[in-house]
Amino acid sequence: MSKKIKKKLLFTPGPLNTSDITKKNTLIDLGSRDDDFIRINKRLMSQLLKLGNASKGYVCLPIQGSGTFGLEATFSTLLNYKSKILILSNGVYGNRIINICKKIGKKFIPLKFNENSSMPIDKIKKILYKNKSISHVALVHCETSSGILNPLNEISLLCKKFKKKLIVDAMSSFGGISINIKKNNIDTLVSSANKCLEGIPGFSFSIIKKNSLSKSKNNANTLSLDLYEQWKGFQKNNQWRFTPPIQAIVALSSSLNQLKNEGGIINRNKRYKKNYFALLSGMKKMGFNCYLNENLHSPIIVSFNIPKNLDFNFLYTNLSKRGFVIYPGSITSQKTFRIGCIGNIHSKHIKMLLSAIKKIILKKRIKYLSN
Ligand SMILES: Cc1ncc(COP(=O)(O)O)c(C=O)c1O
To answer: What is the dihedral of CA 220, 221, 224, 227, to 10 degrees?
Structure first.
C-alpha cells in the first residue's frame, strides 16, 4: 500500500468490520487442490449446514463472488422451463430477484408490496390458492434496503400448506438471526460470507435440499453459476471447479470458530440487538426519526429519515473523516440513510458513532433536526 489508509468502523450492510483474528487468518497461501484447503473447505460447509439446522437432507454449496452471484446461481440452477416462481418483494433486494429471473429467462410472478409495511399474508395465501401453476416462492428474509424483517415463519407455513418450494434470500440475516431451515421446510437458503457470519467478501453459499438439487441437471444456462455441476464437482474430488477464494474460505472458517466462542447465533443476535437498541435510543434523543415503525425492525440495520435541515453528504463525509462509515438509503419514496448494527461491533462502538454524529450536528449549528 503506497498511502496509509485510515482504519474505519463500518456501520453498513456489508462488507463489515471483521475481527483481527479473522483478518490475520487471511495471511496464508494454500493450494486450491491441496489436502489442507480441501479439509478446511469441507469442514466449513458442514458447519454452515449445522448453523441452519439442515445437516440431514441438505447440501451447502459455495460459489465465487458476492451475494448476487449466489442468488443468480441458485435461481439458474433450481428453476427449469416448467417452474414458475412467485417473487415477494418489498424493497431493492426483492426487486433484484425479479431482475435476476427476468435476465435468466425464468417464469415468474412479481408480487410487490409497500416498502414500509408488513407483507399481507392473506393476500399471498389467496394468490397461492388461485395460481396452481406456481412451483416456487422467493422471499427476502431481512430486506436490507429498509431493515424490515419479513415474516419467514408465516410464509414458510403457507408454502408447506400449498406445497410450494421456498427459496429464501437470507443474505443479511443468516448468522445473526436463528433460522431453522429443516423445520421451516425451506427448499433453499442463500447467504454470504461477509455479513452476519463476519467473514471477508469473496463468496456466497446456498443450502439446498438434496432432493431438489438432484433434479436440477442442465437447468442452468451458465457454466460457472451452475450449482448442480458445482455439487457434482465436490462429489467427485471435494474441489471447487474453478479458482476458489482461498483466503475468504479460511477467514470464514476462523469466523465460525469465533461465532461458536461467542455462544452461537443466539448470543450474536443478543449483541446485535444491544447495538440496535443503543443506536435507536441515541438517534431518537438527537431528534432522528426511523423510516419504519419500530415493530417491523430487524436488529440488522436501521433506516432513518433524512431531516430537512441536514445534508446527508455532509454528515457522511464528516463521519468518514472521523473514522465512521454509514450508508446511504435505498428507499424509493423517501430520503433516508442507513446505519448497520452487524459485524464485529459492540454497543461501545455505537456510542462512539452517536457522539461523533452529535458533534457534527452541533458543528453545523443545528439545534433541532426538522423532519
Ligand atoms: C438481502 C440481500 N440480498 C442480496 C444482496 C446482494 O448481495 P451483494 O451486494 O453481496 O451482491 C444483499 C446485499 O446487501 C442483501 O442485503
So the answer is: 0
* Domain 9-13+263-363 homologous superfamily, CATH: Aspartate Aminotransferase, domain 1 (3.90.1150.10)
Q: How does strand 142-143 pair with strand 9-10?
A: unpaired
Pocket flag, ligand 1, residue 74 (CB < 6 Å): no
186 three-state secondary structure:
strand
> Ligand 1 centroid to 101 CA: how many Å?
16
Looking at residue 368, its pLDDT comes to 67
> Splitting the chain (371 residues) into consecutive groups of 10 residues, what average pLDDT does each group show?
84 96 97 97 98 96 98 98 98 98 98 96 97 97 98 98 98 98 97 98 98 98 98 97 98 98 98 98 96 97 95 96 96 94 98 97 78 69
All 3 cell numbers of residue 362? 452541533
- Backbone torsion region of residue 263, taken as left when φ is above 0, otherwise alpha when ψ lies between -120 and 50, otherwise beta: left
Query: Cell 426538522 sits at which residue?
Result: 370
Residue 63 backbone phi and psi in degrees, to 5: -140, 140
Q: Where are the domains of the chain?
A: 9-13+263-363, 21-260
pLDDT value of residue 337: 97
Number of helices (H), then strands (E), belonging to the chain: the values are 12, 14
Q: Which residue has the cell 462502538?
A: 349
The whole-angstrom distance between residue 28's C-alpha and the CA centroid of its chain comes to 27
Of the candidate CATH numbers 1.20.120.340, 3.40.50.261, 3.40.640.10, 3.40.50.10490, the domain formed by 21-260 belongs to 3.40.640.10
Measured at the alpha carbon of residue 196, what is the angle toward residues 357 and 140, in degrees to the nearest 5? 100
Residues in Cβ contact with 330 at an 8 Å cutoff, skipping those fewer than 6 apart: 91, 92, 145, 336, 338
User: Could you tell which of 143, 144, 303, 338 is best to mutate to test the pocket of ligand 1, judged by most ligand atoms within 8 Å of the CB?
Assistant: 144
Query: What number does the ligand 1 atom closest to the CA of 13 have?
Result: 14
Q: Whose CA is nearest to atom 1 of ligand 1?
A: 171
Bridge-based pairing of strands 186-192 and 203-209 is: antiparallel
165: Cβ contacts below 8 Å, ≥ 6 apart: 78, 135, 136, 137, 159, 187, 188, 212
Ligand 1, residues 171, 191, 298: which to mutate, most atoms within 8 A of Cβ?
A: 171
